[in-house]
Design a protein that fits this description.
Length: about 200
């Protein structure tokens, strides 16, 4: 795994640009997902060869749900700096040729999200540099709006697949939701059996 050598994508042209510390010897890069892309089926539509390395922990950041997203009929997640807080997610190894697809999925050209390089702690305690997408416009970190029920199910299913700690899954389960159900997404990602209570 690539170890931390210090690199920040924000200092570069983010269009299809890679940080050397994210890239493996196999022309792939590490990507840390803390939201809907924890879901394997969803992630593998972006890269059929994507490999979940395992769970990861982003320290001194917190999960934030304060910016509305039209697709999800409620806010979508981002991470914001906060001392002594942490965010869990999935570490993926992704084909470098798919980086532009991932950027497109995160609406980088539309300035909704910006890719940055951040240190992620693996389940074994190692630190690796991963590509992480954060909302370009800084959200109000003190406000968390209700997410759609469907988005909550996606987060929970992805968290279970990634085998995140039960205490963190409980945190996701306790996120306030607005009861909106998106039937097309529920069917597409097989969410009917996800328990949210």
């Amino acid at each position: 795994m690539a170890l931390d050598n210090g690199c920040n994508i924000e200092e570069n042209n983010v269009n299809n640009t890679r940080c050397p510390q994210e890239v493996t010897n196999h022309n792939t890069f590490y990507y840390f997902s803390f939201a809907s892309n924890m879901l394997a089926e969803k992630m593998r539509r972006l890269d059929p060869k994507a490999k979940r390395v395992g769970s990861g922990k982003l320290e001194n950041y917190q999960l934030c749900m304060s910016s509305e997203n039209s697709r999800w009929k409620g806010p979508a997640a981002t991470v914001v700096p906060k001392s002594s807080s942490f965010v869990y997610g999935a570490i993926w190894e992704v084909d470098y040729e798919r980086m532009a697809d991932l950027d497109g999925h995160e609406f980088v050209l539309g300035h909704q999200y910006t890719p940055v390089s951040l240190n992620i702690e693996t389940s074994t305690g190692d630190k690796i540099m991963c590509r992480v997408y954060v909302q370009t416009r800084p959200p109000n970190a003190d406000v968390n709006l209700p997410i759609s029920l469907t988005y909550k199910k996606v987060l929970l299913k992805g968290a279970h697949e990634t085998q995140l700690p039960n205490t963190y899954i409980d945190l996701l389960r306790n996120l306030e939701n607005n009861d909106i159900v998106l039937q097309d997404i529920e069917k597409e990602w097989k969410l009917n059996d996800v328990i949210v209570a």
